[in-house]
Amino acid sequence: MRSLRLDPDLDEKVRRAAAARGESVSDFLRRAAAQRAEETLARNPSERFADVAGVVHGGGGRARRSGAAFAETLADDRKRQ
């Protein structure tokens, strides 16, 4: 058994949404919580990003020189000081 406190705006939205579905507020909240829990627990981390992982291809090349570029930036900063 859980107790839940909602701010007045959310409470009003929940009441209106439950009424629109013809459900009690308790049933509406139970279904919403169950759906959110299922969605959260059903996905493993790799599935959470499956729709975006590997989608963008930047052409590559920049990361190979990132260490050297950083060292050059530090050297330039030291020269300016």
UniProtKB/TrEMBL annotation:
Domain Ribbon-helix-helix protein CopG: 3-39
InterPro entries: CopG, Ribbon_hlx_hlx
Region called Disordered, residue ranges: 58-81
Residues making up the signal peptide according to the UniProt record: none
Pfam families assigned to the protein according to its UniProt record, in alphabetical order: RHH_1 (PF01402)
Protein name, as recorded: DUF1778 domain-containing protein
